[in-house]
Design brief:
This protein is of the alpha/beta class and 367 residues long. It is 46% helix and 14% strand. It is built from 16 helices and 13 strands. Strands 3-2-1-4-5-6-7 form a 7-stranded parallel sheet, sandwiched between helices. A 6-stranded parallel sheet has the order 10-9-8-11-12-13, with helices on both faces. β1, α1 and β2 form a beta-alpha-beta unit. It is globular, with a radius of gyration of 20 Å.
């Protein structure tokens, strides 16, 4: 396939970290990269600051979609994206992750006969109550290039019947971005600004509707965090959609709730944390790359590789189990393990694959 122009879609905070190294690699090869920001995340702390930290250029197109129900948001993105795609006429559309922007833009491209490349293909939680699982599965179905971050994702795709010439094990683009920026992040003054010391605090991120939209569940999780914070201070940068819910509940004394941080400051906070408690998929990957213990407060994960070959433990949402696991982390040193190909070179593998005329036998790693 001749590769002269690639259109990349980003809509939510994690997407920006995933497209950045691909854009850099395209630029190095002299291939035109067109960046579309759907505006799914529109809070400056969830978007503008990330672009600045990553050195991402101003998007070529900003769709300005904003919030809405899953159906409304997906439909708005599709309507706004179609004329952009018709005007740009790229050789391939690259979508990343599992948000509504990913699904919407993949569908539009597929219906217009434009090739689709899905970065993070093959991840599966098998939990159909998660909208992201629907987005992942449908996006994979309409994609021509399935870029898997890990061997388990390749296995999932093969079990679902995808041919090997569409499956490409390339590694993790989030880790590309992390490895590029972690040294700079460690020099940030954020710990001193917050009165924290390295390995002397825990970091919390909770934003999934199943955890924060139900007051009873959120209260139970706060109670667990309260017990843990008696042993180590906890910092909770709250997602914008969560701040309103937290305002109605008592916050334990040892838990500090803050606004979100930019990419570099948050990366520094992860790198220096003694442990991280989260319900985020991307943070499960980043903590594994950093060698920081991670407790995932969910019943399922689409990233089991972070458990079998990383630092993640799936602890569920019961208070007693969360507290027990956290106290165990405080007592024992976690051994760093990193999955194969999480080496900072996923983006070059993706671009080499897209540029290659030979697309057979690509399920093996693109070393």
């Amino acid at each position: 396939m001749s590769l002269d122009k690639v259109l990349l879609v980003a809509g939510a905070r994690p997407n920006f970290m995933k497209v950045a190294p691909i854009i850099d690699c395209l630029d190095e090869r002299g291939i035109k990269a067109v960046l579309v920001h759907t505006g799914q995340h529109y809070d400056p702390l969830m978007s503008d600051v990330i672009f600045a930290d990553l050195g991402l250029r101003i998007p070529d197109h900003h769709l300005g979609i904003g919030s809405g129900s899953h159906a409304v948001q997906t439909a708005r993105i599709m309507e706004a994206f179609e004329p952009v795609l018709l005007a740009e006429q790229p050789d391939v559309v690259v979508v990343v992750g599992d948000v509504n922007s990913t699904l919407a833009c993949a569908l539009v491209a597929a219906k217009l006969g434009v090739k689709v490349a899905h970065v993070e293909a093959g991840l599966r939680s098998r939990d159909w109550t998660m909208p992201e699982e629907v987005n992942r599965v449908v996006t994979d179905r309409v994609s021509d290039f399935l870029f898997a971050p890990s061997a388990d994702a390749v296995d999932n795709l093969r079990q679902e019947g995808y041919p090997d010439d569409r499956i490409h094990l390339v590694g993790n683009v989030m880790v590309d971005t992390l490895l590029k920026h972690v040294a700079l992040a460690r020099t940030r003054p954020i710990l001193g600004d917050l009165g924290l010391v390295s390995k002397g605090y825990g970091l919390v991120t909770l934003h999934r509707p199943s955890n924060v939209d139900d007051p009873l569940m959120l209260s139970s999780l706060l109670a667990a965090l309260g017990e843990i914070s008696q042993h180590i201070p906890l910092l909770y940068p709250a997602h914008p959609r969560t701040r309103g819910a937290l305002a109605t509940l008592p916050i334990p004394p040892g838990l500090t709730v803050s606004s979100p941080f930019g990419y570099l400051d948050f990366l520094a906070l992860q790198a220096h944390a003694l442990l991280v408690l989260t319900d985020s998929g991307g943070i499960q990957e980043e903590t594994t790359a950093l060698g920081v213990p991670c407790l995932t407060l969910r019943e399922t994960t689409e990233r089991p590789i972070t458990i079998t070959e990383g630092t993640n433990v799936l602890v569920g949402r019961r208070k007693a189990r969360i507290v027990k696991a956290a106290l165990a982390c405080l007592r024992t040193k976690t051994q760093q393990r990193t999955p194969a190909l999480w080496d900072g070179n996923a983006a070059p593998r993706i671009v080499r694959t897209l540029s290659s005329d030979n697309q057979s036998g690509q399920a093996q790693s693109m070393v």
